[in-house]
Amino acid sequence: MRRLGAPVLALYTGLAAAGLIAALAVGRVEAVALATPFVLALLAGATLGRDPELEVRLAVDRSRAVEGETLTATLELFSPVGIDRLDVLLLLPEVAVVDGGAARAVSLRKGERRAIELELRPESWSALEIGPVLCRVGDVLGMRSWAGELGERQFVRVYPREETLRSLVPPLETQVFAGNRVARTKGEGIEFADLRAWQSGDRQRHVNWRASARRGALWVNEQHPERNSDLVLFIDSYVDARGTGSVSGTNERAVRAAATLAHGYLDHKDRVGLIGFGGYLTWLVPATGLRQLYAIVDTLIESDIVHSYARRGFTVIPRRTLPPKALVVALTPFLDERVVNVLLDLRARGYDLVVVDVSPLDLVAPESPLEELADRLWRLSRDALRWRYEQAGVPVVTWREDAPLAVPIEEVMTYRRLARPA
Amino acid sequence: VILAAGAALPYGVVLADSLLRAGRFAPAFAVVGLIGGVLLALALVFGAPWLLGWSLLIAGAVYIGVLEARGSGVDGTAPLVATGLFLCAELARWSFDMRVRISGDELLIARRAGALVGLAIGAAAASTVVVGVTALGAPRDLAWTALGAAAAAGATAVGVWLARR
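YS: structure for the whole thing
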């Protein structure tokens, strides 16, 4: 631990010296009397203070949590020589809130071991870095103090809270692997698709005897096979409109939506991949299973907004990340022209594209007439952008802070019922 | 706020006592004392120790100045004045420390209060001894002056040694 500067020592030394020198100058003992308490305090500081010996261990009860859950961080303090006053401050990122504050003051007797438990509540998903512990040791009068960073850093992965979804957007095309989705094509399956006349090679079990009796010839049932589908989550990480207070920023909501969708589709045995399109390109090749869910969420919580002026297009995305017939769900605040172009490029290449506009409109509050005018122009330009997408047959739905994610998902399904894309 | 008020109280008492004894010089000393009071208020509001130092220095100067102006003998209330100014300094420092809200043991407050009271009593006793020895008629020759200078240098050295240790 390093010794801290002590303004009180300079102050008291100055006052004591001034008193004694004044006494010499004016020849009055009262000046000596005035200086005496400060000299005494300096002597007390010299005798009371001793170099501290302190051990700090930091432990967190879990390494994974969901945002809003409570974590317990335990600080174990030990001093073989005793400490008159010990202030400890657990260094935490802004997203973590501690009941009663992250700082505590204690005193330790010689050889005493003490544990302090702090209840942490991460208010947003993140790769949380807890610690080290900032310690300040002082004597009982606060004359001298030492400070240092002790305790090992602890890492906790805070996963985004998931929204409740009753239904998911079905992809237009399914893949060739078995899954939970009814394919549009006909083949071996459970769901009834159609009737057709018997052909050589048809199995007897497929004969529809009731239809055959009515028509006087053999007719067989056709079924839709159960297949899986591919979902690619496309996250725009170029720009983030940050929220204030309890209002979430656009990236925060996009990650929450992506985690929710990934969980939902993986539950349906679909393959889910991820593309983080921004200053850094991050991707995960579509795969299925619980392991993929953790991989996606881990990638999401480590994703960050990285500003970049580099012009990037569709070509930088690895080919295996975007399988043919995949449903691409883009989560974007529509704040960067490059993402707009890439998404239109994707649609032009025949991908089944859905755009969820993680709207930043709620985060903007114009305060002057000029700002109001700019705000109106901006909203008009966003409407024009949506119109461009709709012309390309892409459903664009807006997800606002105060609405559940199910609302834009239902909007997409309604759009698809009414306007089937080519 | 309580500690800051506690710091301002002995300061005000010391100043008021000095001014009451100042007689016809009271207005001049009142102006200087007012400056000291303002500096103390600023120190307490902004948590500035150096302003505290200047305000204490002014209060001490006013007290010594009043004694010099009156030309009286040894003042018997000097230990009380010294203890008052010391309490002002310590309570002000404590109020600076309490600006950062840290939840902790009640025991810490009790221990600091106990240490402060003990130190104040010790300061009063030491000042009384100093004043008492002089009142008993200690010789005022060159040797004692040299000893006083050595004491001043020693006190400064203790402070410097503590600061560097």
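YS: worth flagging: Chain B touches chain A through 63 residues (CB under 8 Å).
IM: good catch. Also Chain B has a mean pLDDT of 82.
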